[in-house]
UniProtKB/TrEMBL annotation:
Keywords: 4Fe-4S, Iron, Iron-sulfur, Metal-binding. This is (4Fe-4S)-binding protein. InterPro entries: 4Fe4S_Fe-S-bd (IPR017896), 4Fe4S_Fe_S_CS (IPR017900), NiRdtase/SiRdtase_haem-b_fer (IPR005117), Nit/Sulf_reduc_fer-like_dom_sf (IPR036136), NO2/SO3_Rdtase_4Fe4S_dom (IPR006067), NO2/SO3_Rdtase_4Fe4S_prot (IPR045169), NO2/SO3_Rdtase_4Fe4S_sf (IPR045854). One of its GO terms (molecular function) is 4 iron, 4 sulfur cluster binding. Residues 172-203, 204-232 form the 4Fe-4S ferredoxin-type domain. The lineage of its organism: Bacteria, Bacillati, Bacillota, Clostridia, Eubacteriales.
Amino acid sequence: MNITPTPLGPASIPMDEVKRVKALGFLHRKGTDLFNCRVITRNGKVTADELVRITEAAAKFGSGEVSMTTRLTLEIQGVPYENIDAIRAFLAEAGLETGGTGAKVRPVVSCKGTTCQYGLLDSYGIADEIHERFFKGYSDVTLPHKFKIAVGGCPNNCVKPNLNDLGIVGQRVPGFDADKCRGCGKCQVEKACPVDAAHVVDGKLSVDPEVCTRCGRCVGKCPFHARDNSVYGYRVYIGGRWGKKSAHGIPLKKIFTSKEEVLDIVEKAILLFRDQGIKGERFSDTIQRIGFENVQAQLLGNELLERKAEIIAD
């Protein structure tokens, strides 16, 4: 029987059992027979009643401590191996589940863009839809590796969407009426730009599209209404990651204006990863291996969704 080795001495739990309960959301604490129980939240949110049940579970079956992970799940600390089945049943009575590990879609994270003064999209709303459609809907779909998704309400990138396998960032694309621009010596649009993308050149406002982050803070600042119109949208990054190997996600060339189209992009990315990824590689490795332009063309096309049943069945 294989026993899990640790720097603090061997634990008494067989390695295959450690692996089995990890898939249920119980992470082994090295050198002990204790586990941390990962409780799934809805983007970090639980109800007051659910929170009471979690604290009761921590006191009854664990060490009495609860911690928050970087992915906005809750972990009940110090659960003895023999308490695993009991704590899962106790949490399930309140509709709570454990998990969030393994080579599959992980729980989504988002910033508070829905309520933040800088938010350009309903981050809570789209995260809830991703949670239901892809974390829960694809819970039985095995991928080459874990697949992390993050939603940022604006280009401030508070939850680092571009460091996830797939990141969504709120956008506000400003319009420009050149006929109304007076080329002011003290341009209010230029003053409002936080990334120094806007400048008056030869008597007209000029904005560098490579520098502009489409944060929308310049909209409505022109007293002559040259910058009043705008379109809200979504920028999608693919192939980000952090850890031992890090990579910045690359944005798709299109700024999407339809939430449904963005959700389809998420699904196509998951399907592509399952279909063309190699076991053990992250999505960033898949993109690098087969080429970003190839991946982008597939995500902007429809073939992956047309082959969905075939890809999932393989």
